[in-house]
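Quick one, T. Sequence first:
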Amino acid sequence: MKIMIQGQANYPPNIVYTLAFIDVCTLFGFAVLYILALYFRKNLKLHSRFMVSTIFGPLVPALTRLYLIVLEVASNFIDALTYSYLAIELVLLIIILKERNIKEMKMTYVPFFIFIVVQHILIYYVDDWNWWKTLMNNFANYSP
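Structure tokens:
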């Protein structure tokens, strides 16, 4: 993130702050899910669902590149990012519907689905958050 913010002249305007937000959310989500998986390692149903959930956050950049560069179904970066989140949300919804009668699903997939949806909504507003830009600039030791 530091290199990205310091080299933001090589990116479209203000996109680095959105990318940094996604990176922070992904790292935070992954860490929480991994810690919960470790904590519940003796409960195989919970443990496995927490571990499965860890794959979704890191898929966002991969899917974004897929939609934008490989498949060329998105006309710009934000559209590709939107498609990526929608794909992950759709898969999580399918899993939730399929496992709706399993109590462990309510402790794993539902909260993570909410986390992803909130993150998805917030990415469209990150550019307006001066406090976030200041925080990230301080983190990267960058002066605009």
